[in-house]
């Protein structure tokens, strides 16, 4: 937390610097041009879909006051630098980069265009005209872990990881801790695909895990592949990631974590229109409604739904923390003592897996 | 009316240079038609993809940045292709070159000095060469097809990259994110045109093309490469060892791909990340052929390909052309180029039906 | 139509003269030529089989004196190509001393080094072996004449020198080509052969080994090539001609040997050998251990 709060102090300075620009709003009848840079395409029905839904929500809410441009399939790297510069050159005054790997280039371009506001999803550094925004997906994973732990018949769960970075690792830990809380016998096999989107590799991994007896999956990939295979193989099921994927796996999707970016996008655009936008880092979760648990599949027994809801409500009202001690890691060391938690600042430094995880 | 293909006595030099131009023009025409038919602004797409990057001076720097690695890699590949050595794994050599440069940068990140960048560049070239030496050894010693080995080693290099960036080389202050430290100022390519993003990689690319052109057309090295590729038997008679030539071709191709890799990581990237592989190694194959395997032609071809990339992004942001359209344009261009190649060696003759001929007589 | 005639009443020579429209020139030999000492000595030369259907050479020995033309006759496919590759340096010999030129052992040198020592060779196959069809004539000149004719300086090609030398070959050997820039593949077989022979002969090699020097060449061009070979010998070079054309060998050569299944018979002066003898040798009846000793040709 320390790191992030120190930055939050900076935003006061940033706001002061932005003041001279406010005059513009007076005669700005033209709609605000908002750019969205996506790593994939909105039809992935996952991560990118979620951001595109957020964009549409922004357009619906703000109407004529905004227009938006979406650039898809932008590779993380220098190609993205060109896209951000292009959008800024074309007069976009608010630009969202929706992948971690865009950050270096957003920071570069942000320096060149001080009057353009940039927002970096899942980022870890800010600038006077660059904010970060993220969502506490791991809170939702505690709900999924509860369902998986109670419903598994083989006691073998699996987690299709994308890239082993803290955010993914902590999603796995949250899932595992919740699952072991309701069923101490479960193990969680983790497979990394080394990509956010690689349907072929994801499919292979899913099949191999099913053959090893896994009957419930969680995933951190952009897309519904593991769910589709779960549906095809008739195992108990899995969870939608980033969006409701029940259309692809009506039987296998037990529930889903839905990213709701709309309110954030509406707020950010409104702030730019009003001239009140300031450098910030936001990281809301279930409570704020940015992370939402989708409808429960009817095959989930009522007691499991009740347990899942209890976890969800607990996190929302603050009575339950997904990383409350005691937490043992998978090597048997106590990482978090009774009565302690992993706070938002410590979150990013975690390099271990919770008990029960086989990675 | 009927047409017949007739073999030319000599390949047409005119067609050799006219067909790539025709392929580009035809791509524009067909592209405009196809995209209009499926409901996009076809003419607009062609204008944004092919003309905007050329007309808008703001885009020139992007062209330079995008074309430079393509040119360097394609020049190396073209030398191999001339020798009938089919290195299609430049992507892997590019990655390993980038990794080798990164290794030097991370080992010296607390140091300063003008010598850091040259050392990284040498390491990058050596890395690419070493990675191409594996298929060379397998081909020369065991007659293993280099098409397979170079391609498969590309996948190995991606695994190596992921392992290093997530493991031993991970940025200790990067919140566990998959990336290395940022290189320091002495480990980063200088900008050569103030106020732009054009770095030292661009003049290096032009120099590489120029040197390769002199070597290929004026030196025994180029002669050896060409004769081995055209007539291996005659090469042996002329005193050129096929094995040595395969080694040379792969080492030069790998070394240049490695150079592109280190210039890219020390330039636009500034650090090593898992998204470092950007298909330059594969796109360079199109560039090499579009440039007729001629280093100077490759400079032009590299710029053409860069135009389609840069213009593709312009078209996405201005007229909402979907991203795969860019790939479609590139694929169409390569297809038309290869199809047009037939006109270099054959001519189209109108066949007058016999009955008509008799009537006239 | 130049003429009509009764083929039975004509010799092949008169027929040929009618076809090319001029009288055939006789080969002019300097009278009373002095053969020098043994210049090119090959002893017990053997090569490895390269492929399943290849014929390797086994224990080949011969020697050629300065000024002498040695003919090697034989039915096609009896190791002629392997012998040429072994002599040119495309295939190395087991021992350096297997091939000796003026006392210098060349057996384990490659083609480039052998050429520098004065040993040039012309293989049977023109397109793709002796010349590259997609190269210009000037570039084909660089293929074999670069060192002896100083066309390379510090790894860079002196294309002016290559063009000049190629022009000389075109003129002196009456090659029908537009110039040094013509593609080798655009020349007719006979013209390409004239060019290749000219390219090697004008380098004035100490030893020239040629296979099928006039194969597919019209009679006039063949005579010119023969004359050039004789002239080269007269200047003191040693020449080895491998050919399936017995008439050619009998006209051209001073001594003859026969190759059969990769083995070479002893060489004999052309005047002392009859066509019948050669025929027997070509059919495989020669002095090897498996054949009947009675049929062996006395050395």
UniProtKB/TrEMBL annotation, chain A:
<dbReference type="InterPro" id="IPR052910">
    <property type="entry name" value="ABC-Purine-Binding"/>
</dbReference>
<dbReference type="Pfam" id="PF02608">
    <property type="entry name" value="Bmp"/>
</dbReference>
<protein>
    <submittedName>
        <fullName>BMP family ABC transporter substrate-binding protein</fullName>
    </submittedName>
</protein>
<dbReference type="InterPro" id="IPR006311">
    <property type="entry name" value="TAT_signal"/>
</dbReference>
<keyword id="KW-0732">Signal</keyword>
<dbReference type="InterPro" id="IPR003760">
    <property type="entry name" value="PnrA-like"/>
</dbReference>
<dbReference type="InterPro" id="IPR019546">
    <property type="entry name" value="TAT_signal_bac_arc"/>
</dbReference>
<feature type="domain" description="ABC transporter substrate-binding protein PnrA-like">
    <location>
        <begin position="33"/>
        <end position="294"/>
    </location>
</feature>
<dbReference type="Pfam" id="PF10518">
    <property type="entry name" value="TAT_signal"/>
</dbReference>
From TrEMBL, chain B:
<feature type="transmembrane region" description="Helical">
    <location>
        <begin position="246"/>
        <end position="266"/>
    </location>
</feature>
<keyword id="KW-0812">Transmembrane</keyword>
<feature type="transmembrane region" description="Helical">
    <location>
        <begin position="150"/>
        <end position="171"/>
    </location>
</feature>
<keyword id="KW-1003">Cell membrane</keyword>
<protein>
    <submittedName>
        <fullName>ABC transporter permease</fullName>
    </submittedName>
</protein>
<feature type="transmembrane region" description="Helical">
    <location>
        <begin position="115"/>
        <end position="138"/>
    </location>
</feature>
<keyword id="KW-0472">Membrane</keyword>
<dbReference type="Pfam" id="PF02653">
    <property type="entry name" value="BPD_transp_2"/>
</dbReference>
<keyword id="KW-1133">Transmembrane helix</keyword>
<feature type="transmembrane region" description="Helical">
    <location>
        <begin position="21"/>
        <end position="43"/>
    </location>
</feature>
<feature type="transmembrane region" description="Helical">
    <location>
        <begin position="63"/>
        <end position="81"/>
    </location>
</feature>
<feature type="transmembrane region" description="Helical">
    <location>
        <begin position="321"/>
        <end position="344"/>
    </location>
</feature>
<feature type="transmembrane region" description="Helical">
    <location>
        <begin position="93"/>
        <end position="109"/>
    </location>
</feature>
<feature type="transmembrane region" description="Helical">
    <location>
        <begin position="191"/>
        <end position="216"/>
    </location>
</feature>
<dbReference type="InterPro" id="IPR001851">
    <property type="entry name" value="ABC_transp_permease"/>
</dbReference>
